[in-house]
Write a structure and sequence with these properties.
Elements lengths: L2 H11 L5 H21 L1 H11 L7 H30 L5 H8 L6 H12 L4 H13 L4 H13 L2 H11 L1 H24 L8 H9 L10 H4 L2 H36 L2 H8 L6 H9 L6 H13 L4 H13 L2 H7 L5 H25 L1
Helix pairs in contact: 1-13, 2-4, 2-13, 3-4, 4-9, 4-13, 6-8, 6-10, 7-11, 7-18, 8-10, 8-17, 9-10, 9-16, 10-19, 13-16, 15-17, 16-17, 17-19
Length: 361
């Protein structure tokens, strides 16, 4: 990102704020309002339910309460997490990421790439330019795949929501397992020497494009806190503004599961005793198109009904990391065989995560 772009976005995102003092004032007001709303969620949900002509304890009442309570809860958590991530990402521009990874050997490079994947922006729309940029900067293919796997699999929004809703132990295990999959899978792909499975135009541009590296490597470091906070607000506006329909759909689905699906049925279908539950959850998740914020309410409802944590997380990770739209975007730069290898390696890692979670928790 350029310094001018960052400054402009900050000015449009913090109304009437001049300099760091104004930006911090808006931030403190935002945090105070957030805290007050979050502390009132129970009272709000109970008040809304009391106004509705619903008999207490019925399936419909349970579903409605879940929806009314979880909708503001997830939106509030998402807003705060996205704001913090938006500020943090000003330290990690795509240009700096490419520079950090360029010329790194496999092993160390895979470790760095997997960790950078957590804190740098990545989505389907940015898959092609990021992939191209890494190759042009001389990043080895296996190292690039560690980033490609880690960025969606160890999703920072999912990590924050898991921490807020299920505790640090679950979030930490998710982080460790996801990073392990990204590092190992990238290393394996690098060892297989699959550069010939890149599309021809990608290899040609990578060979000829060393001069096309980032122009403003140090801009993200030189900006002030007013701009950084402004990027946080812009991040909230852009991301929450795009994903809220998915959140409502996810919460509605979760409400239906919470209110109407019998606990024994869900425990039998996605419980830890059914060995086939984890691969089935992955197969169900791949064709779905959602995001971490939209799928977390479904995760919450499935767990409340007795589904095993590992099975549910495998489902969530397959939706986020192996979605069909993601594969379609990657087809622009990867030949079908490499896409199949990529999907197979990631799916194997997700299966491992599911079984490990079910075994230890």
């Amino acid at each position: 990102m350029s310094s001018a772009t960052t400054t402009n976005s900050a000015n449009s995102s913090v109304p009437a704020a001049s300099g760091s003092r104004g930006a911090w004032l808006w931030t403190l007001l935002f945090l105070a309002a957030w805290s007050a709303l979050y502390a009132s969620l129970d009272a709000i949900a109970d008040g809304v339910l009391a106004l509705l002509p619903l008999a207490s304890g019925t399936h419909l009442a349970e579903a409605v309460h879940f929806f009314v309570f979880d909708t503001p809860k997830v939106l509030l958590l998402l807003t705060l997490i996205v704001f913090v991530i938006g500020v943090a990402q000003t330290f990690f521009s795509p240009e700096r990421t490419r520079a950090l990874l360029a010329g790194r050997r496999e092993g160390v490079g895979n470790l760095m790439a997997a960790n950078l994947g957590i804190v740098t922006p990545f989505c389907s729309c940015s898959a092609v330019p990021l992939f191209m940029g890494f190759l042009m900067a001389g990043v080895p293919l296996g190292v690039t795949f560690s980033f490609l796997i880690s960025a969606p699999m160890v999703n920072e929004i999912a990590l924050g929501l898991l921490f807020a809703m299920f505790g640090w132990q679950v979030a930490l295990l998710y982080l460790v397992m996801g990073l392990s999959v990204a590092i190992l899978a990238g290393w394996v792909i690098g060892r297989l020497k699959l550069e010939h499975l890149l599309e021809d135009w990608v290899r040609e541009m990578a060979q000829a494009g060393q001069a096309a590296q980032a122009e403003d490597d140090g801009n993200a470091v030189g900006i002030g806190w007013a701009e950084r906070l402004g990027e946080g607000y812009k991040h909230v506006r852009d991301i929450v503004g795009k994903v809220w329909p998915y959140i409502l759909v996810g919460i509605a689905l979760g409400a239906g599961i919470h209110g109407y699906v019998p606990r024994d049925f869900m425990a039998a279908l996605m419980g830890r005793d059914a060995w086939w539950a984890v691969p089935a959850a992955v197969l169900i998740g791949v064709p779905m198109y959602s995001n971490a914020a939209g799928i977390i309410p479904v995760v919450e409802a499935l767990l409340a009904k007795g589904a095993a944590l590992g099975t549910v997380l495998a489902f969530m990770m397959s939706v986020i990391a192996l979605s069909a739209p993601e594969m379609i975007i990657l087809r622009k730069v990867l030949k079908p065989k490499l896409i199949a290898i990529f999907a197979g390696v990631v799916a194997s890692g997700i299966l491992l995560v599911g079984y490990v979670f079910n075994a230890v928790l």
